[in-house]
Amino acid sequence: MTIASPTLSPADAANPSALPAPSPLKTASELSVFLDFDGTLVEIAEHPQGIVVPPHLPQVLTDLSHRLEGRLAVVSGRSLAMLDAFLGPVPLAMAGSHGGEFRPAGATEVEALAEPLPEAVRTALASFAKGHGDLVFEAKPFSAAVHYRDRPQVAEQLLEFATDLATEHALKVKHGKMVVELAMPGSDKGSAVTRFMSMSPFKGSRPLFLGDDVTDEDAFAAVRVFDGSGVLVGPMRLTRALYRLEDVAAVHRWLENAV
Ligand SMILES: O=P(O)(O)OC[C@H]1O[C@H](O[C@H]2O[C@H](CO)[C@@H](O)[C@H](O)[C@H]2O)[C@H](O)[C@@H](O)[C@@H]1O
């Protein structure tokens, strides 16, 4: 089996060769901003717990959300509990666990938009991780992930194992950066964006989604339905995004330079 990341065909991609940077963000316009977390707002680290959140980031996001009258959301593969732990008590709209968890700005209740993963699947993935060099196993409310950054040589075997489990239990495989996750079908980052866009204050706005990983492609597709655009973060690859920012630092500059 070959480890191909995106399930994108060249026909899906907007422009496989080069993409321009987005214009400076105008907060007075009818734009809304959706932000992926790892690889977009924070640099990728060797371990999921090893990321460093720049101290000013929570305030930058909070201020920008106010200026956009609440039309800013973080949409991540991480659980909301993790995002809360890393960002602190920010009053931002958020979706976690790849769209499985949903929380409008200022709300305290988390809405579950997915079914929990069968226990047998969690156990099987956890024991695969244990038995293959003690890979990092991450249990989330609506999915479970095995990180193979420490042992890339097991990637193919892990993907095959996860794909078989997914077939057996009718699950979705998400293959992100050095991570394979299993989740119940029905929610992804695209469905999270679509849900936000049906609600105030996002309704009627034009969404921009900034993300680095292939799991962000669902959101890049979803924003197009609302006349919005995806912004790929990182090196050029096959993507549905229409714009690109070079790296996390460029994302921070773009957010901080909003006019
Ligand atoms: O949707 P995101 O906010 O980008 O979250 C995607 C996954 O991010 C985390 O894993 C990734 O970041 C880790 C820290 O930089 C890195 O070690 C790992 O290799 C990456 O895959 C997180 O642990 C996952 O739960 C998220 O799904």
UniProtKB/TrEMBL annotation:
<dbReference type="Pfam" id="PF02358">
    <property type="entry name" value="Trehalose_PPase"/>
</dbReference>
<comment type="pathway">
    <text>Glycan biosynthesis; trehalose biosynthesis.</text>
</comment>
<comment type="similarity">
    <text>Belongs to the trehalose phosphatase family.</text>
</comment>
<dbReference type="InterPro" id="IPR036412">
    <property type="entry name" value="HAD-like_sf"/>
</dbReference>
<feature type="compositionally biased region" description="Low complexity">
    <location>
        <begin position="8"/>
        <end position="20"/>
    </location>
</feature>
<dbReference type="InterPro" id="IPR003337">
    <property type="entry name" value="Trehalose_PPase"/>
</dbReference>
<comment type="function">
    <text>Removes the phosphate from trehalose 6-phosphate to produce free trehalose.</text>
</comment>
<keyword id="KW-0378">Hydrolase</keyword>
<dbReference type="GO" id="GO:0004805">
    <property type="term" value="F:trehalose-phosphatase activity"/>
</dbReference>
<dbReference type="InterPro" id="IPR006379">
    <property type="entry name" value="HAD-SF_hydro_IIB"/>
</dbReference>
<protein>
    <recommendedName>
        <fullName>Trehalose 6-phosphate phosphatase</fullName>
        <ecNumber>3.1.3.12</ecNumber>
    </recommendedName>
</protein>
<feature type="region of interest" description="Disordered">
    <location>
        <begin position="1"/>
        <end position="21"/>
    </location>
</feature>
<keyword id="KW-0460">Magnesium</keyword>
<keyword id="KW-0479">Metal-binding</keyword>
<dbReference type="InterPro" id="IPR023214">
    <property type="entry name" value="HAD_sf"/>
</dbReference>
<dbReference type="InterPro" id="IPR044651">
    <property type="entry name" value="OTSB-like"/>
</dbReference>
